[in-house]
Amino acid sequence: MKHSSQLQLQRLNLVILGSFILLTLTIVFWSVVRAPSILAREDNPRLVEAELEIRRGNIVDRNGHILAESVIIEDTVSRIYPVPNSGPAVGYYSFRHGTGGVEESFATILRGDTVDAWDAYWRDLLHMPQSGQDIQLTIDARWQQVAAAILGDHKGALLLLTMPADSTIPTAQIIAMSSYPDYDPNKLDEQFDTLVADENSPLLNRTAQGQYQPGLVLQPFIMAAAVDTGQIQLGDVVENVNEPVQVNGRSKQCVEEPVEPTNWRQVLIARCPAAMRQLGNNLGLGGLDQAFASFALTQIPEVPLNTEISDREPLTDPLLAAIGQDTMTITPLQAAVAWMALMTDGRLPTLQLVTAVQDNAGTWQSQSPQVLERETAVSADVAAIFREALSNSDTTISEHNILVLAGPKGNTNGWYLGAMTHENAHYFAIVMIEDTDKVFLAESVGRRVLTAVTRP
User: Fold this and answer.
1) Which of 105, 113, 159, 213 has the fewest CB atoms lying closer than 10 Å?
2) pLDDT tens string 231-254
């Protein structure tokens, strides 16, 4: 009997010991082995709380004016945007809906994720909130508001850029970037579902992601490439330039009545599709492809924004491609790069949107874009010829504007490309207005922006 009791006691001890071992292993598994994955879960309350307490760094304009900042409102960290219509460049931050624009592309710096492990350890040990570094943009808050006001409620996009006139390195800074319909990033959370459902796509940055048939927006670039390769000279006479051209069931002729006999310079000014079809036939698909590639119209511009667009389809018809009605589409930002090359010395410019970021010590570090040997679209001499040919003696602005058929329904978009020099700096305006039949609407918007630059 005594032996049986001892045996039962030993079994009980083994069960208890086994239970403790199992419990210990379970604790080790969940607290050590599985701890990283548990902590990383999006629904981890500690992770959510830490995220909500992050003080993102400020985003400031070229003059130091705040475009985005984190403030404490009723014990809650809130992201505030003092210039609401800066959305296309600055973007937005939302805990529920993510980030966009510079808020997305520079999130690591703005969040303060760049600190080393030792600093992060002490910050967590002392229960200090995570704080990010500031970023300075090339955007000018005043010009951003001016551009938005001039574009008004016209559905489309407006870009204003500048480049030093005496610069040996073609670097263009984006001063203003306006897209309409737009949104107020201060109200993103409460309006997000409505914004997403809106068929007018207010969250779309039309300057960088809006893809449009270019029509005769391409005319200066195709002609400049043809002059650069010796295919034509602007003084060469062209026959039958004002013949009607059928596009999507609509007849298109020169925008202005050409002078007879007509040369290529007059074709450029009168914007004649029939003459461009002749040139497209002579260049062929290979020559047109080369012309578009030379002006970077087939490349995605390098800026710290979401510039993702659909894959480019190969050209199929040189007669349609030469008048911008084949498979090719472009964004206003792509048009800006090509236009700036043609209006300066023929070299493709580097775009700049961010001028400086703070390091972990709070010191500003310059963010000059990496500039390699820039590709040349056309020679400086050819660029000078076209700059002079497109100059308006009444306004001291070189410009090109056109209405473009967009899609099978017969809708038209208005385009304006403008350039001027003021106080040793080049300024460029790119305007695209959707669904308008007013040939001079985009021109009016672009001229108003460039004229405003000359005023204090």
Assistant:
1) 113
2) 999 999 999 999 999 888 888 999
